[in-house]
Amino acid sequence: MKFLLTFFGVLLCFSCKQAGGMEVEKNQVLVEKYSFSELESLLVPTGHKPKVVNFWATWCTPCLEELPYFLKLEEKGLADVVLVSLDIPSMLDSHVVPFIEKNKIKSQVVLLDDPYSNLWIPKINKNWSGAIPASLIIANDTNVFVSKPFPEYKPLAELVKNL
Amino acid sequence: MKTFVTLSIVALLLLVSVISFGDIFSNRSYSNALKGGYKIGEQVTDFNLLNVDGNYVSLADYPAAKGFIIVFTTNHCPYAKAYEARIANLDKKYKLQGYPVIAINANSPDIIAENNFTNMKVRAQQKAFTYPYLFDKNQEVCKAFGASKTPHTYLLCKENKKLVVKYIGAIDDNYKDAKQVQQKFLEEAIQALLHGEEIAIKTTKAIGCSIK
Protein backbone atom coordinates (compact mmCIF):
# COMPACT_ATOMS: atom_id res chain seq x y z
CA MET A 1 0.00 0.00 0.00
CA LYS A 2 2.79 2.38 1.03
CA PHE A 3 4.59 1.49 -2.17
CA LEU A 4 1.48 2.25 -4.23
CA LEU A 5 1.01 5.63 -2.55
CA THR A 6 4.63 6.54 -3.21
CA PHE A 7 4.24 5.40 -6.80
CA PHE A 8 1.16 7.56 -7.36
CA GLY A 9 2.81 10.43 -5.51
CA VAL A 10 5.81 10.33 -7.84
CA LEU A 11 3.53 10.02 -10.87
CA LEU A 12 1.53 13.06 -9.71
CA CYS A 13 4.71 15.06 -9.24
CA PHE A 14 5.86 14.20 -12.72
CA SER A 15 2.58 15.19 -14.29
CA CYS A 16 2.57 18.48 -12.34
CA LYS A 17 6.05 19.27 -13.46
CA GLN A 18 5.28 18.46 -17.05
CA ALA A 19 2.11 20.56 -17.06
CA GLY A 20 4.00 23.47 -15.48
CA GLY A 21 6.75 23.19 -18.04
CA MET A 22 4.27 23.16 -20.90
CA GLU A 23 2.57 26.28 -19.54
CA VAL A 24 5.82 28.23 -19.54
CA GLU A 25 6.70 27.03 -23.01
CA LYS A 26 3.23 27.95 -24.29
CA ASN A 27 3.56 31.51 -22.99
CA GLN A 28 6.96 31.90 -24.55
CA VAL A 29 5.59 30.88 -27.91
CA LEU A 30 2.57 33.15 -27.56
CA VAL A 31 4.27 36.53 -27.28
CA GLU A 32 7.96 37.29 -27.41
CA LYS A 33 9.60 40.59 -26.47
CA TYR A 34 11.51 42.20 -29.33
CA SER A 35 13.85 45.16 -29.53
CA PHE A 36 13.42 47.36 -32.61
CA SER A 37 16.46 45.83 -34.34
CA GLU A 38 14.93 42.38 -33.79
CA LEU A 39 11.62 43.63 -35.13
CA GLU A 40 13.29 44.93 -38.28
CA SER A 41 13.98 41.34 -39.33
CA LEU A 42 10.20 40.78 -39.43
CA LEU A 43 9.56 43.80 -41.63
CA VAL A 44 10.11 41.94 -44.89
CA PRO A 45 7.77 39.64 -46.82
CA THR A 46 8.51 36.02 -45.93
CA GLY A 47 6.87 34.45 -48.96
CA HIS A 48 4.82 35.59 -51.92
CA LYS A 49 2.23 37.21 -49.69
CA PRO A 50 2.41 40.80 -48.45
CA LYS A 51 3.38 41.26 -44.80
CA VAL A 52 0.92 43.27 -42.72
CA VAL A 53 2.38 44.70 -39.51
CA ASN A 54 -0.12 46.23 -37.10
CA PHE A 55 0.93 48.35 -34.09
CA TRP A 56 -1.64 48.00 -31.30
CA ALA A 57 -2.11 47.64 -27.53
CA THR A 58 -4.67 45.94 -25.31
CA TRP A 59 -5.74 49.29 -23.79
CA CYS A 60 -6.27 50.92 -27.18
CA THR A 61 -9.98 50.73 -28.05
CA PRO A 62 -9.75 51.63 -31.78
CA CYS A 63 -6.93 49.06 -32.10
CA LEU A 64 -9.12 46.29 -30.70
CA GLU A 65 -11.97 47.28 -33.00
CA GLU A 66 -9.87 46.78 -36.14
CA LEU A 67 -7.94 43.73 -34.88
CA PRO A 68 -10.48 41.17 -36.27
CA TYR A 69 -9.90 42.54 -39.81
CA PHE A 70 -6.22 41.64 -39.63
CA LEU A 71 -7.02 38.17 -38.30
CA LYS A 72 -9.52 37.66 -41.12
CA LEU A 73 -6.94 38.79 -43.66
CA GLU A 74 -4.54 36.08 -42.52
CA GLU A 75 -7.28 33.43 -42.24
CA LYS A 76 -8.22 34.10 -45.85
CA GLY A 77 -4.59 33.66 -46.83
CA LEU A 78 -4.24 37.20 -48.21
CA ALA A 79 -1.27 38.22 -46.08
CA ASP A 80 1.16 37.22 -43.36
CA VAL A 81 0.17 39.22 -40.28
CA VAL A 82 2.38 40.36 -37.40
CA LEU A 83 0.67 42.07 -34.47
CA VAL A 84 3.17 44.31 -32.68
CA SER A 85 1.93 45.04 -29.17
CA LEU A 86 3.01 48.36 -27.69
CA ASP A 87 1.66 47.49 -24.27
CA ILE A 88 3.96 48.44 -21.41
CA PRO A 89 6.34 45.41 -21.16
CA SER A 90 5.24 44.68 -17.57
CA MET A 91 1.70 44.15 -18.95
CA LEU A 92 2.78 41.15 -21.04
CA ASP A 93 1.68 38.40 -18.65
CA SER A 94 -1.17 40.33 -17.03
CA HIS A 95 -2.82 41.74 -20.18
CA VAL A 96 -1.33 40.67 -23.51
CA VAL A 97 -1.03 36.88 -23.05
CA PRO A 98 -4.54 36.54 -21.52
CA PHE A 99 -5.96 38.63 -24.38
CA ILE A 100 -4.30 36.42 -27.01
CA GLU A 101 -5.54 33.26 -25.23
CA LYS A 102 -9.07 34.55 -24.71
CA ASN A 103 -9.47 35.59 -28.35
CA LYS A 104 -7.65 32.49 -29.66
CA ILE A 105 -5.39 34.65 -31.84
CA LYS A 106 -3.25 32.53 -34.13
CA SER A 107 -1.37 35.33 -35.90
CA GLN A 108 2.18 36.11 -34.84
CA VAL A 109 2.22 38.51 -31.86
CA VAL A 110 5.33 40.21 -30.54
CA LEU A 111 5.73 42.87 -27.86
CA LEU A 112 8.02 45.69 -28.94
CA ASP A 113 10.10 46.40 -25.83
CA ASP A 114 12.20 49.32 -27.00
CA PRO A 115 11.58 52.56 -25.06
CA TYR A 116 13.74 54.77 -27.29
CA SER A 117 10.83 55.36 -29.62
CA ASN A 118 12.07 58.75 -30.83
CA LEU A 119 14.74 56.76 -32.66
CA TRP A 120 12.61 54.00 -34.18
CA ILE A 121 9.28 55.73 -34.95
CA PRO A 122 10.77 57.70 -37.89
CA LYS A 123 12.27 54.46 -39.25
CA ILE A 124 8.76 53.04 -39.62
CA ASN A 125 7.46 56.23 -41.20
CA LYS A 126 8.77 59.76 -40.96
CA ASN A 127 5.23 61.20 -40.73
CA TRP A 128 4.12 58.91 -37.89
CA SER A 129 3.51 60.83 -34.65
CA GLY A 130 3.58 57.61 -32.61
CA ALA A 131 -0.19 57.43 -32.06
CA ILE A 132 -1.70 53.96 -32.40
CA PRO A 133 -3.23 52.12 -34.17
CA ALA A 134 -0.89 52.22 -37.14
CA SER A 135 -0.20 49.64 -39.82
CA LEU A 136 2.57 48.92 -42.25
CA ILE A 137 1.79 46.85 -45.34
CA ILE A 138 4.92 45.51 -46.95
CA ALA A 139 5.13 43.98 -50.41
CA ASN A 140 8.22 43.38 -52.49
CA ASP A 141 8.12 46.54 -54.52
CA THR A 142 5.72 48.76 -52.62
CA ASN A 143 4.99 49.60 -48.99
CA VAL A 144 2.09 51.45 -47.47
CA PHE A 145 1.85 53.06 -44.03
CA VAL A 146 -1.58 53.75 -42.51
CA SER A 147 -1.76 55.70 -39.25
CA LYS A 148 -5.50 55.47 -38.72
CA PRO A 149 -7.84 52.61 -37.85
CA PHE A 150 -9.57 50.70 -40.63
CA PRO A 151 -13.33 51.28 -40.26
CA GLU A 152 -14.12 47.84 -41.71
CA TYR A 153 -12.51 44.77 -43.29
CA LYS A 154 -13.08 45.70 -46.93
CA PRO A 155 -10.76 48.74 -47.26
CA LEU A 156 -7.94 46.75 -45.65
CA ALA A 157 -8.50 43.76 -47.95
CA GLU A 158 -8.70 46.01 -51.02
CA LEU A 159 -5.49 47.78 -50.07
CA VAL A 160 -3.64 44.49 -49.66
CA LYS A 161 -5.08 42.93 -52.84
CA ASN A 162 -4.21 45.96 -54.94
CA LEU A 163 -0.56 46.09 -53.93
CA MET B 1 -12.94 67.37 -67.62
CA LYS B 2 -9.93 65.60 -69.07
CA THR B 3 -7.64 68.38 -67.83
CA PHE B 4 -9.22 68.13 -64.40
CA VAL B 5 -8.58 64.38 -64.22
CA THR B 6 -4.98 64.79 -65.38
CA LEU B 7 -4.40 67.58 -62.87
CA SER B 8 -5.92 65.49 -60.08
CA ILE B 9 -3.63 62.57 -60.90
CA VAL B 10 -0.58 64.83 -60.99
CA ALA B 11 -1.58 66.39 -57.66
CA LEU B 12 -2.09 62.95 -56.10
CA LEU B 13 1.26 61.70 -57.38
CA LEU B 14 2.97 64.80 -56.01
CA LEU B 15 1.29 64.33 -52.63
CA VAL B 16 2.26 60.66 -52.47
CA SER B 17 5.87 61.42 -53.40
CA VAL B 18 6.10 64.22 -50.83
CA ILE B 19 4.75 62.23 -47.91
CA SER B 20 6.75 59.12 -48.68
CA PHE B 21 10.24 60.59 -48.88
CA GLY B 22 12.77 59.84 -46.21
CA ASP B 23 11.86 56.71 -44.29
CA ILE B 24 13.15 53.25 -44.89
CA PHE B 25 9.94 51.26 -45.18
CA SER B 26 7.04 53.26 -46.46
CA ASN B 27 6.56 54.71 -49.85
CA ARG B 28 2.89 55.50 -49.43
CA SER B 29 1.11 56.67 -46.32
CA TYR B 30 -2.40 57.44 -45.21
CA SER B 31 -3.15 59.23 -42.01
CA ASN B 32 -5.90 60.93 -40.09
CA ALA B 33 -3.38 62.84 -38.02
CA LEU B 34 -4.64 66.35 -37.50
CA LYS B 35 -3.51 68.50 -40.34
CA GLY B 36 -2.27 71.85 -39.24
CA GLY B 37 -1.73 72.45 -35.57
CA TYR B 38 0.95 74.77 -34.26
CA LYS B 39 4.46 74.46 -35.63
CA ILE B 40 7.71 75.55 -33.97
CA GLY B 41 7.89 79.34 -33.91
CA GLU B 42 4.16 79.88 -34.36
CA GLN B 43 2.01 81.97 -32.07
CA VAL B 44 -0.52 80.24 -29.79
CA THR B 45 -4.03 81.57 -29.22
CA ASP B 46 -5.04 81.60 -25.55
CA PHE B 47 -7.82 79.30 -24.37
CA ASN B 48 -10.27 79.16 -21.49
CA LEU B 49 -10.92 75.67 -20.09
CA LEU B 50 -12.55 74.24 -16.99
CA ASN B 51 -10.10 73.08 -14.31
CA VAL B 52 -10.72 70.20 -11.88
CA ASP B 53 -11.06 72.80 -9.08
CA GLY B 54 -14.17 74.21 -10.79
CA ASN B 55 -12.54 77.40 -12.10
CA TYR B 56 -11.83 78.33 -15.70
CA VAL B 57 -8.15 78.73 -16.57
CA SER B 58 -6.52 80.84 -19.31
CA LEU B 59 -2.85 81.39 -20.00
CA ALA B 60 -3.51 85.11 -19.45
CA ASP B 61 -4.11 84.25 -15.77
CA TYR B 62 -0.33 83.87 -15.39
CA PRO B 63 1.09 87.36 -16.07
CA ALA B 64 4.39 86.54 -14.34
CA ALA B 65 5.03 83.33 -16.32
CA LYS B 66 7.88 83.31 -18.84
CA GLY B 67 6.16 80.50 -20.68
CA PHE B 68 4.28 77.23 -20.19
CA ILE B 69 4.72 73.48 -20.31
CA ILE B 70 1.48 72.34 -21.96
CA VAL B 71 0.93 68.59 -21.50
CA PHE B 72 -1.89 66.78 -23.28
CA THR B 73 -2.56 63.85 -20.98
CA THR B 74 -5.47 61.70 -19.83
CA ASN B 75 -6.69 59.33 -17.15
CA HIS B 76 -6.73 55.92 -18.81
CA CYS B 77 -3.55 55.79 -20.89
CA PRO B 78 -0.69 53.67 -19.48
CA TYR B 79 1.88 55.85 -21.25
CA ALA B 80 0.39 58.97 -19.66
CA LYS B 81 0.36 57.28 -16.25
CA ALA B 82 4.01 56.31 -16.69
CA TYR B 83 4.84 60.02 -16.94
CA GLU B 84 2.65 61.38 -14.11
CA ALA B 85 5.45 61.52 -11.53
CA ARG B 86 7.80 63.12 -14.07
CA ILE B 87 5.17 65.77 -14.96
CA ALA B 88 4.78 66.58 -11.25
CA ASN B 89 8.56 66.97 -10.94
CA LEU B 90 8.68 69.27 -13.96
CA ASP B 91 6.00 71.48 -12.43
CA LYS B 92 7.76 71.53 -9.06
CA LYS B 93 11.09 72.44 -10.61
CA TYR B 94 10.09 74.89 -13.34
CA LYS B 95 7.02 76.68 -11.92
CA LEU B 96 9.42 78.65 -9.72
CA GLN B 97 11.57 79.47 -12.75
CA GLY B 98 8.61 80.80 -14.72
CA TYR B 99 7.44 77.72 -16.65
CA PRO B 100 4.40 76.12 -14.95
CA VAL B 101 2.77 72.90 -16.20
CA ILE B 102 -0.75 73.11 -17.65
CA ALA B 103 -2.23 69.63 -18.20
CA ILE B 104 -5.12 69.17 -20.61
CA ASN B 105 -7.36 66.13 -21.10
CA ALA B 106 -8.94 66.20 -24.56
CA ASN B 107 -10.22 62.63 -24.71
CA SER B 108 -13.95 62.22 -25.22
CA PRO B 109 -15.54 60.53 -22.18
CA ASP B 110 -18.14 59.10 -24.58
CA ILE B 111 -15.49 56.66 -25.80
CA ILE B 112 -13.76 55.87 -22.50
CA ALA B 113 -15.76 56.88 -19.39
CA GLU B 114 -12.61 56.83 -17.26
CA ASN B 115 -11.69 60.13 -18.92
CA ASN B 116 -14.79 62.07 -17.82
CA PHE B 117 -14.62 65.22 -15.71
CA THR B 118 -15.62 63.47 -12.46
CA ASN B 119 -12.83 60.92 -12.90
CA MET B 120 -10.40 63.71 -13.79
CA LYS B 121 -11.17 65.30 -10.41
CA VAL B 122 -10.65 61.95 -8.66
CA ARG B 123 -7.31 61.37 -10.41
CA ALA B 124 -6.07 64.91 -9.66
CA GLN B 125 -6.99 64.46 -6.01
CA GLN B 126 -5.53 60.95 -5.64
CA LYS B 127 -2.25 61.95 -7.26
CA ALA B 128 -2.22 65.40 -5.60
CA PHE B 129 -1.67 67.28 -8.89
CA THR B 130 0.15 70.56 -8.21
CA TYR B 131 -0.85 71.93 -11.64
CA PRO B 132 -4.19 72.63 -13.35
CA TYR B 133 -5.81 69.66 -15.08
CA LEU B 134 -8.14 71.13 -17.70
CA PHE B 135 -10.97 69.53 -19.62
CA ASP B 136 -10.92 70.25 -23.37
CA LYS B 137 -14.51 69.11 -23.74
CA ASN B 138 -15.00 70.13 -27.38
CA GLN B 139 -11.43 69.12 -28.38
CA GLU B 140 -10.94 72.63 -29.76
CA VAL B 141 -7.65 73.23 -27.97
CA CYS B 142 -6.10 69.88 -28.91
CA LYS B 143 -7.10 70.51 -32.54
CA ALA B 144 -5.59 74.01 -32.48
CA PHE B 145 -2.35 72.56 -31.12
CA GLY B 146 -2.45 69.50 -33.40
CA ALA B 147 -2.01 67.18 -30.39
CA SER B 148 -2.61 63.61 -31.53
CA LYS B 149 -1.81 61.53 -28.47
CA THR B 150 -1.09 61.41 -24.75
CA PRO B 151 1.31 62.37 -23.42
CA HIS B 152 2.16 65.09 -25.96
CA THR B 153 3.94 68.23 -24.78
CA TYR B 154 4.31 71.77 -26.11
CA LEU B 155 6.77 74.22 -24.62
CA LEU B 156 5.63 77.83 -24.99
CA CYS B 157 7.66 80.99 -24.40
CA LYS B 158 6.48 84.58 -24.08
CA GLU B 159 8.04 86.87 -26.66
CA ASN B 160 6.79 90.47 -26.90
CA LYS B 161 3.64 89.42 -25.01
CA LYS B 162 2.98 86.69 -27.56
CA LEU B 163 3.13 82.97 -26.74
CA VAL B 164 5.37 81.16 -29.17
CA VAL B 165 5.86 77.37 -29.59
CA LYS B 166 9.47 76.36 -28.86
CA TYR B 167 9.38 72.57 -28.52
CA ILE B 168 6.88 69.82 -29.46
CA GLY B 169 7.05 66.16 -28.52
CA ALA B 170 8.08 63.80 -25.76
CA ILE B 171 9.15 64.61 -22.19
CA ASP B 172 12.19 62.36 -22.48
CA ASP B 173 13.43 59.34 -24.41
CA ASN B 174 12.31 56.50 -22.12
CA TYR B 175 8.66 56.11 -21.07
CA LYS B 176 9.40 52.82 -19.35
CA ASP B 177 11.98 53.75 -16.80
CA ALA B 178 12.79 57.28 -15.62
CA LYS B 179 16.15 56.00 -14.37
CA GLN B 180 17.16 54.78 -17.83
CA VAL B 181 16.47 58.13 -19.52
CA GLN B 182 19.38 59.25 -21.68
CA GLN B 183 17.93 62.50 -22.98
CA LYS B 184 15.48 64.79 -21.20
CA PHE B 185 14.24 66.52 -24.35
CA LEU B 186 11.74 68.87 -22.68
CA GLU B 187 14.05 69.89 -19.81
CA GLU B 188 16.92 70.50 -22.20
CA ALA B 189 14.63 72.80 -24.19
CA ILE B 190 13.57 74.71 -21.04
CA GLN B 191 17.18 75.02 -19.92
CA ALA B 192 18.13 76.45 -23.31
CA LEU B 193 15.34 79.05 -23.01
CA LEU B 194 16.39 79.94 -19.46
CA HIS B 195 19.97 80.45 -20.64
CA GLY B 196 18.98 82.33 -23.79
CA GLU B 197 20.41 79.60 -25.99
CA GLU B 198 19.12 77.93 -29.16
CA ILE B 199 17.13 74.73 -28.48
CA ALA B 200 19.08 71.81 -29.98
CA ILE B 201 16.20 69.35 -30.46
CA LYS B 202 12.91 71.11 -31.20
CA THR B 203 10.67 68.15 -32.06
CA THR B 204 10.63 64.50 -30.97
CA LYS B 205 8.32 61.53 -31.37
CA ALA B 206 7.00 58.99 -28.90
CA ILE B 207 4.40 56.27 -28.68
CA GLY B 208 1.21 57.37 -27.01
CA CYS B 209 -2.53 56.75 -26.82
CA SER B 210 -4.28 58.56 -29.65
CA ILE B 211 -6.66 61.32 -28.53
CA LYS B 212 -10.17 60.15 -29.35
UniProtKB/TrEMBL annotation, chain B:
Which PROSITE patterns does the annotation name? THIOREDOXIN_2 (PS51352)
Under what name is this protein listed? Peroxiredoxin
Query: What would you give as a GO molecular function for this chain, any one?
Result: antioxidant activity
Database matches in InterPro entries: AhpC/TSA, PRX-like1, Thioredoxin-like_sf, Thioredoxin_domain
Q: Which domain of life is it from?
A: Bacteria
Mind telling me which Gene3D superfamilies this protein's record contains? Answer: Glutaredoxin
In what residue span(s) does the Thioredoxin domain sit? 38-191
Q: Which PANTHER family match?
A: OS07G0260300 PROTEIN (PTHR43640), THIOREDOXIN-DEPENDENT PEROXIREDOXIN (PTHR43640:SF1)
A Pfam family assignment: AhpC-TSA
